[in-house]
Amino acid sequence: MPYVWWHSGYDLRCHAFAIDQAHDAARGYYEAVCEHSVPQERVEREQHGQLCTTCLIKVGTELPEEVRWRS
Ligand SMILES: [Zn+2]
After folding, report:
1. Ligand 1 centroid to residue 71 C-alpha, Å
2. How far is the CA of 67 from the centre of ligand 1 (A)?
3. Separation of 6 CA from ligand 1 center, angstroms?
4. For 45-56, how does the pLDDT look when each residue is reduced to its tens digit (9 = 90+)?
5. Higher model confidence: residue 35 or residue 24?
6. I need a labelling partner for 55 at 20 to 30 A (CA). Which of 6, 11, 20, 25 fits?
7. How far is the CA of 23 from the centre of ligand 1 (A)?
8. H/E element holding 22?
9. Domains of the chain: total
């Protein structure tokens, strides 16, 4: 699944969010890969600031199912 990196006004870090959340306008909040959740009005839809380490690790190590089974 593709991700977007957005800045959270709560902890001033950049988190990875699953892209399908970005297309859901009815959502009241977004939930990052590291389970940090932030209300829509506190999200800046751009990447700046320090990247969240937990998100980086989770996104970086998440492999497609077929790749995982082969290795
Ligand atoms: Zn995060």
Report:
1. 27
2. 24
3. 9
4. 999 899 999 999
5. 35
6. 25
7. 19
8. helix 19-22
9. 1
